[in-house]
């Protein structure tokens, strides 16, 4: 069953917490990965791979650059999940 | 600049070793003659010819925050922990540029390792084979590169004068300290964070060293396995950790009122050009390095009271080192209290020069030579005054000097000299 936006946000918050150490409650839809959440370009690759696994979705490299905020990622996952 | 105002002093020390998570606990354990060698637990070590190592007393993963630790190879984790201790010990409370204590462009780092991020390399290859392309960490390259510990410490303190990593196997840490001294002497920097680190306790490096016949196979008595100068010595025991010092021009240290542990007089360097891994049996290269040190500094053999020997517990190497010292120092070797601290820490490869410099600094500062353990039956080839089992007081009055030796596969010889202030 496809995940809801709320479930995706929670999943992304757990991933960002694990990778960058940001408290789960600080990971919100309007937050920028690089500017707000201490996720640099290398760590972003980790976030993407973890998200692919968590939500059974493929995020090709060329789409990763468009995922600036947590909201961008949540929306992408919501649209592309099986 | 005159040589007087480019005198180099030690103002801070830091270490994380098989004996303790910082320099104070390490030193305490050393004086107590405690061994850091333990059995290697776990299935992946079960079938190896060597199943002992001097693993770190404090796991770096328990010290560093997880998001930081997961982006650093274990060797860089050790270096960062030791560097943070040394930086604070030197009285610095902020990174360069945040206050007026040191300008970023006058601060450097020189931190070496012998092998670099070998466990990252091997573990990520396992990930590639077992979990596939997508799962290989994007941090792999910056983690495994040998300059990673120096670069990460440089980022931590905002060093902009230069971030360097000399590599010379087991002489790497000492070579780093020598390089740092030259950086200050030449006027390139006022302060340099310098030392060595290593983290190679993994089945592959252990098996590879064991197949060279370089390691002790005394799996039954781990604490007895590292026994420099003893007749029954049968090779080194692998250790892990890091040792870092803050080197500073005496002028800069005086200007900020820093506590000074001792002076670093300089280094003597040479190469054996004999064999890629075997020590030259007469100690010719070691003697040349020591002679070069004496020729290039004002160190007098009569003031040398302590030696932290390279002494890894190999039959050939320990004897060649003492032969070389006798050749150059002659009767002056008789008043040198010789300590082989690898009897307790094992051999940290590129980290050895770092932790042993920290120990030499503490020996001069506290005027105490740490003991050598496990010399139950002193080899008659060892014609020197070995400090055995218990620490020994060094002369309480007047200036005293010490030598710290490190040699590496490839025939690298590095001899450092330090003197009390």
Quick rundown:
The complex is a heterodimer of chains A (82) and B (421). With 82 residues, chain A is mainly α.
What is the strand arrangement across the widest sheet of chain B? 5-4-6-7-1-8-14-13-9-10
Order of helical and strand elements of chain B: EHEEHHEHHHEHEHHEHEHEHEHHEEEE
Unreliable segments of 5+ consecutive residues of chain A: none
Order of helices and strands of chain A: HHHHH
Largest binding interface between chains: A-B, 11 and 12 residues
Oligomerization category of the chains in this entry: heterodimer
Number of strands of chain B: 14
Terminal residue distance of chain B: 22 Å
Protein name (chain A): Acyl carrier protein
Domain Carrier (chain A): 3-81
Main location (chain A): cytoplasm
Domain EAL (chain A): 1-82
Structure description:
The complex is a heterodimer of chains A (82) and B (421). By secondary structure, chain A is mainly α. Chain A has helices spanning 5-20, 33-36, 41-55, 61-64, 70-80. In chain A, helix 1 packs across helix 3 (41-55) and helix 1 (5-20) packs across helix 5. By secondary structure, chain B is an alpha/beta fold. In chain B, 33% of the residues lie in helices and 19% in strands. In chain B, the strands form three sheets. Chain B has a ten-stranded mixed β-sheet, sandwiched between helices. In chain B, strand 9 (304-308), helix 12 and strand 10 form a beta-alpha-beta unit. In chain B, helix 3 (74-89) packs parallel to helix 6 (148-157), helix 7 packs across helix 14 (352-366) and helix 11 packs parallel to helix 12 (315-329). The longest helix of chain B is centred in the first third of the chain and has 16 residues, at 74-89. The two termini of chain B are 22 Å apart. Classes of the chains: A mainly alpha (82), B alpha/beta (421). The interface between A and B is small, with 11 and 12 residues.
């Amino acid at each position: 069953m496809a995940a809801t936006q709320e479930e995706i946000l929670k999943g992304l918050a757990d991933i960002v917490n694990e990778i960058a150490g940001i408290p789960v409650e600080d990971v919100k839809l309007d937050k920028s990965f690089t500017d707000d959440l201490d996720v640099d370009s290398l760590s972003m690759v980790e976030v993407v791979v973890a998200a692919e696994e968590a939500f059974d979705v493929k995020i090709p490299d060329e789409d990763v650059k468009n995922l600036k905020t947590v909201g961008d990622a949540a929306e992408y996952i919501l649209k592309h999940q099986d | 600049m005159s040589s007087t105002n480019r005198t180099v002093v030690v103002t801070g020390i830091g270490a994380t070793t098989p004996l303790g998570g910082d320099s104070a606990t390490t030193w305490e354990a050393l004086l107590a003659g405690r061994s850091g060698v333990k059995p290697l637990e776990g299935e992946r070590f079960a079938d190896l010819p060597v199943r002992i190592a001097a693993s770190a007393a404090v796991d770096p993963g328990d010290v560093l925050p997880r998001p930081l630790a997961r982006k650093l190879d274990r060797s860089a984790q050790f270096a960062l922990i030791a560097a943070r201790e040394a930086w604070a010990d030197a009285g610095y409370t902020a990174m360069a540029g945040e206050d007026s204590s040191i300008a970023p462009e006058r601060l450097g780092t020189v931190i070496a390792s012998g092998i670099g991020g070998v466990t990252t390399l091997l573990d990520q290859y396992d990930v590639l084979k077992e979990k596939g392309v997508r799962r290989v960490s994007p941090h792999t390259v910056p983690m495994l590169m040998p300059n990673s510990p120096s670069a990460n410490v440089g980022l931590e303190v905002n060093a902009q004068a230069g971030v360097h990593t000399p590599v010379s196997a087991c002489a790497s840490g000492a070579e780093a300290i020598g390089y740092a001294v030259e950086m200050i002497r030449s006027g390139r920097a006022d302060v340099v964070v310098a030392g060595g680190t290593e983290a190679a306790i993994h089945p592959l490096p252990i098996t590879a060293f064991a197949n060279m016949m370089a390691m002790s196979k005394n799996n039954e008595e781990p604490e007895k396995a590292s026994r420099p100068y003893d007749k029954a010595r049968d090779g080194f025991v692998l250790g892990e950790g890091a040792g870092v010092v803050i080197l500073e021009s005496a002028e800069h240290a005086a200007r900020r009122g820093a506590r000074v542990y001792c002076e670093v007089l300089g280094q003597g360097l040479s190469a054996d050009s004999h064999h890629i891994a075997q020590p030259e049996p007469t100690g010719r290269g070691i003697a040349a390095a020591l002679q070069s040190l004496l020729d290039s500094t004002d160190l007098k053999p009569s003031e040398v009271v302590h030696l932290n020997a390279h002494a890894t517990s190999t039959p050939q190497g320990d004897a060649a080192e003492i032969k070389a010292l006798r050749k150059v120092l002659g009767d002056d070797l008789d008043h040198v209290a010789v300590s082989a601290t690898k009897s307790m820490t094992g051999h940290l490869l590129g980290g050895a020069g770092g932790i042993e410099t920290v120990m030499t600094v503490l020996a001069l500062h506290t005027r105490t030579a740490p003991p050598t353990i496990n010399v139950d039956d002193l080899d008659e080839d060892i014609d020197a005054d070995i400090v055995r089992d218990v620490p020994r007081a060094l002369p309480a009055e007047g200036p005293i000097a010490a030598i710290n030796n490190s040699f590496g596969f490839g025939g690298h010889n590095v001899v450092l000299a330090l003197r009390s202030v």
